[in-house]
Each structure stands twice: as structure tokens, then as C-alpha cells.
Design goal:
The protein is α/β, with parallel strands linked by helices. It has a single domain, classed as 3-Layer(aba) Sandwich (Rossmann fold). Helices cover about 30% and strands about 15% of the residues. The chain contains 5 helices and 6 strands; from the N terminus they run E-H-E-H-E-H-E-E-H-E-H. The two termini are about 20 Å apart.
């Protein structure tokens, strides 16, 4: 199985949990957007689609923030049956009236169940997604959900660099045991 990380707005830096997954475990690569600072729904979904279709075999998606939104939008419009599921961490509420202007172009969020198994991880104090909205998205998308107390946006600045719990969630929801690497990071385009 291939594990594909899907970063959000500004990408995932060197100490982000997605980067740690890529450098710690076999079979991980990353979707690379042309411009991490310019969120564009159509271009980001198209790039995810290109990346998925270039891979062989089964794929499991691991999104964060606007990357989670990209995964949901892709699943709702361009789904490939080789994708066995997705872990959507801290999806940004790009429809919220007070959301960052830079991520508003990613709206709207899917309003139907996703055609794949998905699991949301949300926090009870995320500045970009209220807990109530996170639970509502999980219900709409047909996703299971975990709540991390006091996790903020589950990003590097919130203390989420190496994060063993996310690896265990990936194993649980992908049905695969992750194998460690020797510190290599591979990025897909």
C-alpha cells in the first residue's frame, strides 16, 4: 500500500508530523502543489488526482488542514477506487465567515457522503474548525471522528512534530502495519 500525505496551506515544514511520517515509514510520499501559499480548489484537487493516478496499487490518503479539504473535495468529484481510505486531520473550515482570506478560495466543502472510508481527527480548540463543525462534517461525509483535547490545529506550532498516535491511526484505518525506514524522505509530484 502507498501512503500519500496531502499538506495544507503553506505546506508542511521539516518538523511537521506529515514530514516525520514520510521520513520514518516506508511507502510514504507527498502531493506537491505548485504554490502552497495560493490555495486554489481546482488546481489542488487536480494535482492530488494526478498524483494518485500515477501510483500503482492501493493508496491511503493522509491530509492536514486544507490538505484534508482537498482530499474530501477530490473524493467527492474524482474518486479512484484504488484509494482505500483517508485520514483527515484538522480540516480547515474554509466556509466559516471568519476564516483566513487566503483559504476562502477552497470553498465549498463537500455536502455529501464521501465514497471512501474516512476518519477525521479534530480538536476541541482548533482556531480553524470548531468542534461542532468538525462533528457535523464527519456526519455529512460519513466519517468516523476522534477528538484531541487541547490539540489546537494539530500542527507543528501546537506541538505536533513526531506524533506516534497518527501513525497508529493510519495503521488502524488502512489495515496495514507501517514499516520504518532509515530516515529517507520521498516526495511524489
Amino acid at each position: 500500500m502507498h501512503f500519500l500525505t496531502v499538506p495544507g496551506y503553506t505546506g508542511s515544514g521539516s518538523d511537521h508530523w506529515q514530514t516525520h511520517l514520510e521520513s520514518t515509514y516506508e511507502g510514504f510520499s507527498r502531493v506537491i502543489q505548485d504554490d502552497w501559499a495560493s490555495v486554489d480548489r481546482d488546481r489542488w484537487v487536480a494535482r492530488l488526482d494526478e498524483t494518485v493516478r500515477a501510483l500503482d496499487g492501493e493508496v491511503f490518503l493522509v491530509g492536514h488542514s486544507c490538505g484534508s479539504v482537498t482530499v474530501a473535495q477530490w473524493a467527492a468529484t474524482r474518486f479512484d477506487r484504488r484509494v482505500v481510505g483517508g485520514l483527515l486531520v484538522a480540516p480547515a473550515d474554509v466556509e466559516a465567515p471568519d476564516t483566513l482570506p487566503a483559504i476562502k478560495p477552497q470553498a465549498p466543502l463537500p455536502a455529501t457522503a464521501l465514497p471512501m472510508a474516512s476518519h477525521l481527527v479534530v480538536s476541541d480548540n482548533d482556531p480553524f474548525l470548531s468542534l461542532e463543525r468538525g462533528r457535523a462534517l464527519a456526519k455529512t461525509w460519513g466519517s468516523t471522528v476522534d477528538v484531541v483535547p487541547g490539540g489546537g490545529h494539530l500542527a507543528t506550532r501546537d506541538g505536533y512534530g513526531p506524533w506516534d498516535h497518527v501513525a497508529r491511526l493510519i495503521e488502524r484505518y488502512s489495515g496495514t502495519t507501517l514499516e520504518t525506514t532509515e530516515g529517507r524522505v520521498r516526495f511524489a509530484r
